[in-house]
Write a structure and sequence with these properties.
It is a single chain. The protein is mainly alpha-helical. It has a single domain, classed as MetI-like fold (Orthogonal Bundle), CATH 1.10.3720.10. Helix content is 71%, strand content 0%. Helix 4 runs parallel beside helix 7, helix 7 packs antiparallel against helix 10 and helix 10 runs parallel beside helix 11.
Length: 272
């Protein structure tokens, strides 16, 4: 693994370093942040500098501290939603590809119906009905993104199911779980791992968009999307504070994509 990492291109190394920094900030947010997540420390919209490195927000909370806590909230929730989406979509995709027949048709048509609805509009509709709490948001986002995971998993698994070694396992009388776990899954791991990184990007971008619209992570918890909304009026005065959480979202997205591009290149078997 270390040998592979040393051979990684510069872009992938930079991406991994940035991702590691984000993870460390999220894990040690309580130690790094100079103030509490919801602590009111001064008047609203204090300028940068002094005790408040990036000033204060519309309620007088330290912007720098809330940026740090937002990393923990946004990344933690995005990780949970992404893993749940992969558990549901990946499992159903493998079952559909392996069993085939009416099971495959039923699951595929259900996924087609769900994918026909624009993802953000579907999420807004469901959260409006169910209520924008944390559990509902994770379940709704995981449900919507599991359809994309299902399509990819089914597509790559269908290419493996027709292989001779899978047919030999079926002739031997191996069970469905054994065939999926030992024959199919090891041969489709590379594209699934790459999709995991891309899907994580889409999930936390969705969380930020929902928070910006008021149906994501609810106050007083810090979130990059809601921080953009709360300080958006400062743009008219030439203050770049609203760009800070937006930049945090953009930098992480680009970094993950640089690593995923390298992983896709590795799994493709192409040589430089």
């Amino acid at each position: 693994m270390l040998r592979t990492l040393r051979k990684a291109p510069l872009s992938a190394k930079i991406g991994m370093i940035v991702i590691a920094c984000y993870v460390l900030i999220a894990v040690f947010a309580g130690v790094i942040a100079p103030f509490g997540e919801t602590e009111v420390v001064a008047y609203e919209f204090e300028p940068w500098g002094g005790d408040y490195l990036l000033g204060t927000d519309n309620l007088g909370r330290d912007t720098f501290s809330r940026l740090i806590y937002a990393a923990r909230n946004t990344l933690g929730i995005a990780a949970l939603a992404t893993l749940l989406a992969f558990c549901v979509g990946g499992t159903l995709g493998l079952i559909a590809a392996t069993i085939g027949g009416w099971t495959d048709q039923l699951l595929s048509r259900l996924v087609d119906v769900l994918m026909a609805i624009p993802a953000l509009i579907f999420a807004l509709l469901l959260l409006t009905i169910l209520g924008p709490n944390l559990v509902n948001m994770i379940i709704v986002i995981a449900l919507i993104d599991s359809t994309r995971v299902f399509r990819l998993t089914r597509a790559v698994a269908m290419n493996v199911v027709v292989m001779d070694f899978v047919e030999a396992a079926q002739v031997r009388g191996e069970g469905l779980g054994w065939i999926i776990r030992r024959e199919i899954l090891p041969n489709i791991t590379a594209p699934l791992v790459a999709e995991l990184g891309l899907r994580f990007c889409f999930v936390f971008l969705t969380i930020s968009a929902l928070s910006f619209l008021g149906l994501g992570i609810q106050p007083p918890a810090a979130d990059w999307g809601s921080m953009v909304r709360e300080s958006a009026s400062l743009i008219t005065f030439g203050d770049i504070t609203p760009l800070l959480p937006a930049a945090a979202i953009g930098i992480l997205t680009v970094s993950i994509n640089m690593v995923v591009d390298w992983m896709l290149h590795m799994s493709s078997g192409l040589q430089d």
